[in-house]
Fold these 3 entries.
Entry 1:
Amino acid sequence: MADDRSDKRGQLSLFAAARSPRRGRADPPPDVSPLKPTAVYDAYWRFAAERQEIFFARAEGRPAPWTEDEILAEYKFTNAYRASDRVSQYLIRNVIYRPDLPDTAEETFFRVLLFKLFNKIETWELLEREVGPLTWSAYDFKAYDGVLGKAMDRGEAIYSAAYIMPSVGSLGHARKHSNHLALVERMMRDGLPAKVAASASMQQAFELLLAYPSLGDFLAYQYVTDLNYSTLTNFSEAEFVVAGPGALDGIRKCFTDTAGLNAAEVISFMADRQEEEFRRLGLEFRSLWGRRLQLIDCQNLFCEVGKYARASHPEVKGVSDRTRIKQKFKPHGARIVYWYPPKWGINDRIAAGFPPGAATVEDG
């Protein structure tokens, strides 16, 4: 057995070297006319393949190191698939599909927005410990506000560092978290859960969220994606995308000229070409048990390769002037048992031993 493991690790090292986003950095960019790619364009696909290999290595319980790429080993990057990230996994399994919590449209919406406004597992668990099951039917502003206020007074961070949450000062409270609780209340009292559930498209649901104070394009798109993990809606992740600031930076680094395509069109271009580009580069991209990269994933990959290029291709400039990657990689102790929205059909494939990447299926 030891020899088998040694051979497998040796093969992994060879594959990792071939997939490394930095390998081939001097190769001429491919012809994707009328767009004009830079060297970071190929790094995008290599990054996606290698990050997905790291994901499977960790999911299968293999010991570190999971990559020979020094940048990926040292710094924190999200997964190739957004739904595989630790916070998304917690949201899906422990917030949305909790068998002990009500699954009505109203209650599901409430839980998702409450969780996502702070986007921090520890904040959700703190609230649940202090006030009991987190439901709209038993919601009490003073109780929630008190728990979060005391946590802040103790110096605890109640917001995730993943992205900056703007304050909602227009709702009249002195503290940021109080205004965010008031924002959830306003949405609930406006009947927003039913309106989102009745939306004919992801864009329509996005626009409903966008109408609320402090929710710009980026957050509204992230939230509609999170809501769509539930049974509240059933939009295709291939129908609509909004580029965040990080993705815009990555797009600028991947292309010197996008031939008049806007950011959403460039992301769609990448999603459409994924199989062709992996083949061209000789990459064995292992999909998410048959699920190809969706628009939200390609959007996130632009953001991540934009960060990656600060170290791998520092000569290529983006929208921002950032030159360093701030967050170092620190593995969490608990191993995640991956579980996805049941409507995707992935959980059945995992249970049946379906090999990842063996075939692709349409987004559901």
Entry 2:
Amino acid sequence: MKHGLNTDKGMAWLHWLLVVLLAAAFALVLAEFFGVLNLKSGWPEAVLLLLAVIGTLVSLTRQLPSQNVLLAASVIAIVGGGISALGAITGIPFGPFTFTAELEPKIFNTLPWAMPLVWVVAILNSRGTARLILRPWRKTRSYGFCLMGLTAALTMLFALAFDPFASRIKHYWLWSPIRFAITWQGAPLVNFSSWGIVTLLILVLVTPALINKQLSKRRSPDFHPLCVWLGSILLFGIAAGMNGLWTAVAVEAVIGIAVLIFAVRGARW
């Protein structure tokens, strides 16, 4: 029992250390955006992404066995990354786009190393945020299906905010012209629906590993996923504003405020 308590305290210390490091990396990226630091290599964003992934996984291990968390993250990275690679090669299912050299190195000269990690951050933190929103209904029979659907919707919103940052500001990828005139900041709308569909597919595979099968006392709500999710939206919004993408700023502000309100309301239940 004492060993278990020491392990829990150790994980708590590690969790809060990662929170501090993540906040510091976030501040570093903002300093780069505002020209306080002149860093052209892109390593602050890489560090921020890596810390977001590690922090997300450590936060989950406070609720689930570490092997379950690693299994779920691996499946998300492999399936999400694989479908992103397929999309770059064939244009299916996201629409025609090309990864640039801004996200080097690439896996098998096709997939940027960061894309599997982006999927992990987007899906796991969307799911954690969805759990907060749906907390009042966690004992209903349809809760599991609602959780999957809301997670897919939040991942779509994450992609909606992320794409202008990635394609128009950082130029991580470039969209090719398409016949349909309706786009979002240059990206075809099918891109975002595809993020949702792929997320549902991934959730079918990983949800069994993300269910806590051990009986335990009621836990207090975990706000770490919400902070990472909203922090990402805030970062994308700031970058969009600094580059004059005011429509994106307005949409991302509405998304962030609405999700914050519903998540806090659910957490207080």
Entry 3:
Amino acid sequence: MVNRTVNPAETFKAVGDPTRLRLLRLLSRTELNVQEMVQILGMSQPGVSKHLKVLLDAGWLIHRKEGTWSWYGLVSDVDFAGGPEFRRVVLEGARLSPDAVADDAVLQRVLAERDRRSGAFFSDIAGSWDMIRPAFDHPDVQAGAVGALVPPGLELVDIGTGTGALLPLLAATGARITAVDASAAMLTRARGLCEREGLNDVAFEQADIQDLPFADDRFDAAYCSMVLHHVARPERALREMTRVVKPGGKVVVMAFTRHNLVWLREELAHQWLGFSRDEMEDLFARLGLRAARYLECGLSRLAAAREKLPPGLRGRDEDWPDVFLTVGVKHETSR
């Protein structure tokens, strides 16, 4: 909940402490959970939580819960009650912290560990992924995704292609596809699928989807299906998708809706418990994308597919969140 009232004494007091300035600087770069901030600052959890409460009460932070995890981020300049100019001046000062270099080094290790956990999971699960994926695929959403990519002949990048299960569907649109994944094991299976299906116009690239090895404005569309909740920094991944798409091109995203099913984090290496429509539309706006379509579907019709999952990954029918499809169109002036 954003604090929209100003108490000058609280607002100034909150930023008069070096530790709280360190926190503001870190949270201006990315959202972090309490455990990660404890690791970066080298403090106890109660000590970090005390500083976070001061900043939250003074209106500097936003807070959300995911199961037992607490996540914090810096309030936007639009929502900060003290005004964007004061916020900017404080953050400029926070960047002069003598701990900045050390904090950044630990932050990079924390973010790398997020990605390492996802990478290790997908390397281990590659052989079973084609059995797991149908449990949360939804035909209505997939059809909407394909519809978003017509007309034929598009230059398309499939972000986080996995084992390539959707490549035949995407190829059916007549698109020229570049399939990207960070996992070599996944790409090996995707190549095998394309060989069996006779899909000869698919290129493969092993890369971090948060740092795509493509020039600006290269593709007509970027497609990302059920990947964002596995990524350390979803906003950075979407920023990269937006960058490589031509002005007027589309960014098509499928992911789980916001939920509180923490077992998905433990069993399927989810880093984020879904995303709300407001979150996605706000993110699109910040990245220079016009929200053009949103479709949400439940997974109740896929109970039979769920029975094929390995024990421990089946959950209950009510244990699967809904899936959304959203499409953003890159503004002609975006860069």
